[in-house]
Each structure stands twice: as C-alpha cells, then as structure tokens.
Specification:
8-stranded mixed β-barrel, about 45% helix, elongated, alpha/beta, binds ligand C2E, disordered C terminus, about 25% strand
Length: about 575
C-alpha cells in the first residue's frame, strides 16, 4: 500500500495537492513555486482573508494585499532568504488581514523542496490562526465555545426553546493563588466531571472561559427541572470536596436563561448569560439566578448612565450642575446657608434627560467617579458661598461628601485648596456625611475628624435616624449638627407617635450639645410645630426647592423671581 500511495502522489501535481487535502483541515494550505514566482492557497483562506483568489502569478508581491502592513517587510525578507536558498524551513508568527481588514494572528510554517539541481523549487506549508478560539480545553477536557456554536447550529432549530445554564466557580483565583495552578487545573477538570456526571444525552456541557461552563439543556422543561439539576451538581461538587478531605472548599454560581430562538440570537444570549452569572455570583456561594428581562434592562440603564457619567467627567463635567437649597434658622426664619446638591443630565440624540441623584450618586460611588465629581461640586459650592457672603456675611454652604471620597481620595487637600482659592473662612463650609461606612470609626477617620475640628470646618451627620447613622455614631463622631431625613419628617407630621419620637430625638440630641436640622419641610404648619420644640435649622420645599445659583440669587437675595420660573426639582 505504501508504494501505491507514493506512486499515486507523484502523479498528482504539487498544486493539486492543496485541493486534495485542504477540505480535510482547519489550517490553510499553500504552495509557492519559487522559480515561477506563483502562489496557490486553499479556498478557505480566500473566504476568510483579504485574498482575491486562490492563485497568484506574482507570489512575492501578492502578500502586500493581505499581510498586515507592519509585518510585510519581515515576510519579504524571509521569502528572499528562502529564494536564495539560505533557509530551508519557514516558521513565522505574524498578522494577516481578514475580510474586514482586521489583523488576525497566524502561524505560517513551510518546507522548501529543491529541484534536481538542488535549487529551491517549492515552498509548501500551512497557515493556522493562533488567535482563534480554541476548539477544546485540555484542562477541563471539554469542548469550547466554537464547538458549542456548531452544536447549536446543527441541533437546535430556530423554533425550539432551551435552557442555558451558565456555571462559574466562586473565588477560583483564590484556589489558584493558594493551592497552585496545577491543583487549580485539577479542580477545573473535577468540576467539569462533576457537572458531566449529572447530565443526560440531551444536556451538553462546554467550557467557555477560565472557570466558567455552559450547559445547553434540551431536557428540562420547567424551572423546577433546572433547579433539580443544579442541586444535583452542587451535591456532586460537595462530594468532590469531601473526597479531597476539604483541601479545597468552594461553591459555584449558576445563571439560568430560558432561551427562545437561540440559533438566531446566540450572541445576545451570550451577553445575557454573563449578566446572569454575575447576578448569581452577587448572591453569595451556590447562588442561582433565573434571568429576568426587567433586571437586565435595569442593568443596561445603569451601564448607560455609568458610561454617560464617564464621558461627562472626561469632557469637563458637561451635563453636571450644582443646585442650591436654602437652610433656614428655625427660630428667626432667616436663611443661614444652603445645601449644594449635585445634578446630572444625560445627552442622547441631542436630547437632555435629567437623571435623579438617587439613581446616579450610587453609580458615581460604584465607579469611583464620585471623587472628581465631588471635587467639582465642592469647588462650585465654595465659590457660590464666597459670592453669597457679599450679601449674607455668615452664609454657610453644606456639601455632601461620600464615604468613598473620604477614604479613597485626599479630600482634606481638596477642601484646603478650595477654601484657599475662594478665600472662604473655613467655618462657612459644612461637610455632610451620609453612608454606612462612617459607622466604622477607623483611626484614619478619627484623624480626619480631628483635622476638621482643628480647622473649624463644620461637620454634619446626614440622614440621622435612618438605618446606619444612629446613636452610637453621633457619640463617636461628635458632629456639629445632625440632619433628620425627609422620610422621617413626613411620618412624624402625619402620626402622633412618630411626632413624639421626633420630639424625644430633638431633646436627646440637644442634651449632648448637638444641634439638629430637620429636612423635608413642606407645610407652614409643620414649620410652626417644629418651632415649638426648638429645632435649630430647617430645610424643605416650603422655603425653596433646590435651584441653580442664579435663580437662588434672584429669589433669596434680589427677591425678584417669578416663582413659576423656578426649576421644579
Ligand atoms: P440628601 O443629602 O438627604 O439631600 C436632601 C434631598 O431631599 C435632596 O434630594 C432634596 O432635593 C430633597 N428635598 C429637599 N427638600 C425636600 C422636601 O421638602 N420634600 C422632599 N420630599 N424632598 C426634599 P436630591 O437632590 O434628589 O438628592 C438626593 C440625595 O443624593 C441627597 O440626599 C444626597 O444623599 C445625594 N447627593 C446629592 N448631591 C450630592 C453630592 O454632591 N455628593 C454626594 N455624595 N451626594 C449627593
Ligand atoms: Ca445632605
Ligand atoms: Ca436626606
């Protein structure tokens, strides 16, 4: 047989070998006749790259069309050496251009075949894509995403619905970090085995990335069926952990999607799967999350706002603004200062969409953008206070400061530089602190608190009476005054028991020599009631809604505003 094949192959022209073998391989075969300067490559390469046809008369120059510009001189030099007989092997890593002109990393290997006289005649070899998604993962022993796609296209009809189950190992990095990569790989393989042992023929498992696996489930019909499968998998993993004598302890998270028309919308479902797994992970170990469209829409909206916030910060705070709301002295009814409140509008299709602070402030905190945005508000507010001091010499400005700003930025430096720039007496600045983080009075925070005290910058505990800022907090922090939240005020004004509680809070706070500001005053009668119990300061729509600086000046200083022109916020 050996001789038969040799005989047969000799009868086939070298160029025709490509046509013969190319369809059986993923790699692209090529042959260059170094003497005639012709070039032939398999049709699959023509379909994939910027190659106009599968044979060329001018091999050397043909490369300029599909080789990435920066790599052309390298390939030309190598080819020259081959033509001159200086090199017999070709093995280069460089980039070709795909049909869209995008670079694709390839490895081009080849062997030179000499003619009878020992002169280089052919360069024959193959090209394979090295940046391509792997077909299979040698660690988990599973097929990869490329195979998953091909399974979908061959087994799933457009009309069928399936469950996609996306599983991730929780804290896998820590396993690699503490027990080593080899053991990590062993865990990856074992998890794949555990999952596989729970599956039927209608449930296929693929390795997606690192420590994440996807099951295409054509067997389950209901959520309960999928939950049962998930429980079975968790149990198997538990058994594995026990068999390892708890050398490693970990959980998995599972995102589950009921997918219709998976064939058509695989890429969309892939994004949703990533989202669902993230949701599951946020639930803690062994979390299961069933995809809900509403959650995803909320997530997309948050991402949209985050991206708008990033752009706005990068573009000189375009879309950000600072509004001011007056703070009144309860006894005299005079305005003593204002609270600076951040505003943000997104621009979309040239339309302006205001976003509520309740929505965007947490996103600024999450992204860390609260640091530059908070600095922007601080500077604007300090400058506004400086301007106001011409009319009301003791005017005070309250600026909200997030916990993130306090611990992750040099807020102290920002405050000093701002009050210096606008020549503001430090006692005119009040830092309002909200957020749960303040309850941990770390040494760093004590130091910062002391700096405020020494410099005579006012310190206000915001949202007193809600969840986090409690009695413990007030004793530790020694604020100049506390602010009672809007919600609390509204309750106290409509319910006698709550009003009694409010009264007791005012007495208690006064008894430890701390003042109190009550927010959310919307009615004259509320004001009168609070005056009777000797509240120190008041804030609310009754006195003024938050508005732009110029409107604020017009209304409270020049007394010339038409009320209706005030921005209603
Ligand atoms: P906050 O510090 O408790 O601010 C008071 C909120 O009550 C403001 O909401 C204000 O518009 C609203 N308000 C004022 N008077 C009344 C009233 O009579 N009735 C009712 N129902 N509400 C009233 P806003 O402006 O939507 O701000 C919400 C929260 O966003 C603020 O609550 C604060 O926690 C945060 N925030 C606003 N600006 C900043 C900022 O520059 N930095 C930081 N870190 N947080 C900010
Ligand atoms: Ca506040
Ligand atoms: Ca509040």
């Amino acid at each position: 047989m050996d001789t038969d094949i040799r005989k047969l192959l000799k009868e086939i022209a070298a160029e025709d070998l490509i046509e013969l073998f190319a369809p059986c391989m993923d790699d692209y075969l090529y042959i260059i006749d170094l003497q005639k300067n012709t070039f032939k490559i398999s049709q699959a390469a023509v379909n994939r790259f910027m190659i106009s046809g599968n044979s060329f008369d001018d091999a050397v120059n043909s490369f300029q069309y599909f080789v990435y510009k920066e790599d052309r001189s390298m390939i030309a030099e190598d080819l020259q050496c081959i033509i001159e007989g200086k090199e017999k092997d070709h093995n280069l890593y460089y980039r070709w251009l795909d049909k869209n002109g995008m670079p694709v990393w390839i490895n081009c290997r080849g062997k030179v075949i000499d003619d009878k006289d020992g002169k280089p005649h052919y360069l024959i070899g193959c090209v394979n894509e090295i940046g391509d998604t792997q077909r299979a993962d040698n660690v988990s022993g599973l097929l990869g995403e490329r195979e998953l796609r091909s399974y979908i296209s061959s087994h799933i009809k457009d009309s069928s619905s399936v469950y996609l189950i996306y599983i991730g190992i929780d804290g896998f990095n820590a396993i690699n970090g503490t027990l080593g990569v080899d053991y990590g790989n062993y865990v990856l393989k074992s998890v794949a085995d555990c999952i596989n042992s729970c599956l039927s023929d209608n449930q296929k498992l693929y390795h997606i990335v690192a420590d994440e696996y996807m099951i295409i489930d054509l067997e389950s019909h209901t959520k309960d069926d999928v939950m049962l499968l998930q429980k079975k998998i968790c149990k198997k993993i538990e058994e594995f952990i026990i068999s390892e004598k708890y050398k490693v302890v970990f959980t998995i998270s599972t995102g589950i999607i009921y997918a219709k028309m998976l064939l058509k919308y695989y890429d969309e479902y892939r994004k949703i799967a990533v989202f669902s797994l993230k949701q599951a992970k946020s639930m803690g170990g062994n979390g299961v999350y069933f995809f809900e469209k509403e959650d995803y829409e909320l997530f997309l909206r948050k991402e949209k706002i985050k991206s708008a916030l990033r752009n706005a910060v990068a573009n000189g705070f375009e879309g950000f603004d600072v509004y001011y709301q007056p703070i009144m002295d309860c006894d005299s009814g005079h305005m003593i200062g204002a609270e600076a409140l951040m505003r943000f509008s997104m621009y979309q299709d040239k339309k302006k969409e205001p976003v509520s602070p309740v929505e965007f402030i947490p996103l600024l905190e999450e992204t860390g953008l609260i640091i530059p945005a908070g600095r922007y508000v601080l500077n604007k507010a300090v400058s506004m206070c400086h301007e106001m001091s011409q009319y009301i010499p003791e005017f005070k400005i309250n600026v909200n400061m997030s916990y993130i700003q306090m611990v992750k930025s040099d807020i102290w430096k920002d405050i000093l530089s701002s009050i210096k720039q606008y020549d503001l007496p430090p006692e005119c600045l009040c830092a309002e602190l909200t957020e749960s983080g303040y309850t941990d009075m770390t040494p760093y925070f004590y130091k910062l608190r002391k700096k405020f005290e020494e410099k005579n910058i006012q310190f206000v505990l915001d949202d007193f009476g809600t969840g986090f800022s409690n009695l413990h907090c007030i004793v530790n922090m020694k604020p100049n005054y506390v602010k009672l939240d809007n919600d609390f005020t509204a309750k106290a004004m409509s319910n006698a028991r709550d009003f009694e509680l409010l009264k007791k809070i005012v007495e208690m706070v006064h008894s430890i020599d701390i003042r109190i500001c009550i927010e959310g005053i919307e009615k004259e009668e509320w004001y009168q009631k609070l005056k009777e119990i000797h509240v120190d300061y008041l804030q609310g729509y009754l006195f003024g809604k938050p508005c732009e600086k110029n409107q604020f000046l017009n209304k409270f200083i020049f007394h010339c505003t038409d009320q209706e022109n005030l921005t209603d916020l």
